Amino acid sequence: MKRNTNKDNEERAKTEKKANKNARKKKKRTARNKATDVRIYRGYEIDHYMFKAKTQVQKENTPKDMERTSNQKIRSYKLKDLEARAKYQKELEKSMDKALTEGILDWEKYKETIREVAKKIQTLQGLSSKTVYDETKLSDMTIPESIAYSKNSMCIIPFEKEHEVEVNFQK
């Protein structure tokens, strides 16, 4: 019986080696290192050589199906304003109470609630406070084609009632 177990062990080892060898073949290398400068110098006592090489290391390619999430930061300097801070605290307490009553205490849910409150209060980085143009403002800003495409034409575009900007159109 001992011989049979040894043979079985040998066969298992062979099949494992084949499986490992096939797995290594299938695995492709995604990053390559390049040698940019290779030099060989004589050693101090000339009994050896020094090999010096500069290499360029590239990062491994990330899988295409991997999700890319943006790491948005909360603008803490906006919370220095007392009104904004109080509003943020109230909203955060309300949303945390909701999360606790639902019984969900994992980190992802906690992070989502903080980001949602920051979006409401506009302290999340990435949100812009750009003016939204409606149809009336855009219609006021349009220039007739006869003026816009004529040679050396000058026109005044009213942006708001307080400011007027002079624009030169030249080819």
UniProtKB/TrEMBL annotation:
Residues 20-32 have a biased composition (Basic residues). Residues 1-36 are annotated as: Disordered. Residues 1-19 have a biased composition (Basic and acidic residues). This is Uncharacterized protein.
